[in-house]
Amino acid sequence: GQQVMQIPQYQHVQEGEDFTTYCNSSTTLSNIQWYKQRPGGHPVFLIQLVKSGEVKKQKRLTFQFGEAKKNSSLHITATQTTDVGTYFCAGWHNYGQNFVFGPGTRLSVLP
Amino acid sequence: DVKVTQSSRYLVKRTGEKVFLECVQDMDHENMFWYRQDPGLGLRLIYFSYDVKMKEKGDIPEGYSVSREKKERFSLILESASTNQTSMYLCASSPFLQEGQEQYFGPGTRLTVT
């Protein structure tokens, strides 16, 4: 079936370092969404990318959607302790007509 | 502000019991979802509903059923709870998934089956 993978599974960084998580789908995606889940919380929508090659920025966060619409990345510049949490990508698959979440990347930021 | 509420934050049930998890949204959303979240596996879709009385199976529907009698309410039912259904259950809603609308999640119910 359709799968969405994320790497790395865990990432520990020192505050101020950069962080990147990668999302890869086995099939083409209509769109990709990113969510953040703080420890003990629920997923909260961050952004959606729709176009091939699209890049969007939210302050220190940069999101990219691959040209083939099968992969995406989230890059955080100069991490802060408030960035701690699990970042999920999720995509709507064209042909399977279903919405699938990746397993998430858990980010720890050491002060 | 969209609000999605779930009936319980924590629930402990015995094996074989029938369990009801309730979810209510207040934004007149068409779509509602039930996920379970387990460490290392992310969010896995159990069922979703795109209209009242309509339901579609997700990736892991076995052992679960759902009910949507009113637009704002979506219930998840474990007919006979088993220990492997111990998990965090998350409900979500969205206006129109096909248009790529974001999903709004409830706080989750941590279910333990003993």
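qc> Chain B touches chain A at residues 35, 40-45, 58-59, 90, 92, 97-98, 100, 102-108 (CB under 8 Å).
qc> done
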